[in-house]
């Protein structure tokens, strides 16, 4: 599956929101307002992976996945969400988006990046561990449905991109 990583555009919103809805249980998926909030936060950026294949929808190339991340002035990066359509998984799209987000965070002088994932999301945990993330702690009742989260962290200065 061929794809290109590019910056998010406002007209991508409906598609990325639909992808988020398809990736998460309705109890924890972002509402439109919540997703808009994260996309607009100070220091935030969003990257999308767009299909290069000839097949596209009526609006042009298909967005396969996206990542929302942010950097703080304190040298801390945060991966807010990374979502990949079910039919596009296992094609290294998530890895490419994560690598691109980490590079952008390094360029913003972030030394460390953190993210949260549900304790019961074993595929996400395996994915992040393959990319050099370590579990720092458990955050009780992090998600709106009461599920705990794992806080993961990666040192961006000592670890080069791994895919």
Point out poorly predicted stretches. Answer: none
Question: Which geometry do the CA atoms define?
Answer: globular
How are the strands of the biggest sheet laid out side by side? 1-2-3-4-5-7-6
**Count of helix runs:** 4
Q: What composes the largest sheet?
A: 7 strands, mixed
How far is the N terminus from the C terminus?
Answer: 16 Å
Q: Helical amount among residues, as a percent range?
A: 25-40%
Query: Strand fraction band?
Result: 25-35%
| Helix and strand run | EHHEEEHEHEE
Mean pLDDT: 91
Structural class: alpha+beta
* Number of distinct beta strands: 7
Structural Rg: 15 Å
SSE arrangement:
Elements: E1 3-7, H1 13-23, H2 32-40, E2 44-51, E3 63-71, E4 76-84, H3 93-107, E5 112-118, H4 122-130, E6 134-139, E7 149-155
Parallel strand pairs: 4-5
Antiparallel strand pairs: 1-2, 2-3, 3-4, 5-7, 6-7
What this model shows, in words?
This protein is an alpha+beta fold and 163 residues long. The protein has four helices and seven strands. A seven-stranded mixed β-sheet has the order 1-2-3-4-5-7-6. The longest helix has 15 residues, at 93-107. The radius of gyration is 15 Å and the shape is globular. The two termini are 16 Å apart.
In short:
Helix content is 27%, strand content 31%. It has helices spanning 13-23, 32-40, 93-107, 122-130; strands at 3-7, 44-51, 63-71, 76-84, 112-118, 134-139, 149-155.
